[in-house]
């Protein structure tokens, strides 16, 4: 049972499925607002042109091999049923075919859509969810697609600490997310000890469905502003924009959802685009 927008309890399976479909159709659709872009210059270092060109270079056999063997072998498979362990244990048989296809996708980003069909499973965020918004959509991406995304991540990772503000501590190599906890405790401790007439307050902001509302045009603008290699931008655009989403409902593939915004939780590339 779930409540609809009017607060009425819905019990019929088909009606509940439609609730999810309508909610995610709205969530993954651009809101149509025109937003101006304000160019900014970062105070921390940008990456030099020579290193950007290396990131945009041809994919090597060893990069493909490493990307596939970095994946969790038994994570939930995509629509064809093959998890990463299938490729790892049969690499002598399928390795050259997979490697050649990944290289083709790198050279022709417009073809990424061929392997970008994604099943979305809904995990409850609370013990007893009553509304559709209390579920987290987790994307089960194609293993071939994840291989390409892993290569991108491995190339971008070494430069993130030069691109992202030192106040952002998650997903950045050589930074620790636990630093945020220490800073927060220190702030509250300091405020408790302050004396005088002036008051202080702390505001905790929760950006609801922040991944799912991320604007694709905004991602493009950010990648332009950090001066990322043009070909890599095309590959990332292909990864983000060519996605085909289908909700899993009672272990069955549901109706396909069109999307014009959002990043997928479950895509190896998403956390890094998000922090950028």
List keywords for this structure.
alpha+beta; two-stranded antiparallel sheet; 11 helices; four-stranded mixed sheet; 276 residues
Describe the model:
It comes from Acacia crassicarpa. This is Reverse transcriptase domain-containing protein. The longest helix is centred in the middle third of the chain and has 17 residues. The relative contact order is 0.18. The chain has 11 helices and 6 strands. Helices cover 42% and strands 11% of the residues. The protein has 276 residues and is an alpha+beta fold. The strands form 2 sheets. It has a 4-stranded mixed sheet, covered by helices on one side. It has a two-stranded antiparallel sheet with strand order 1-2. Helix 3 packs across helix 6 and helix 5 packs across helix 6.
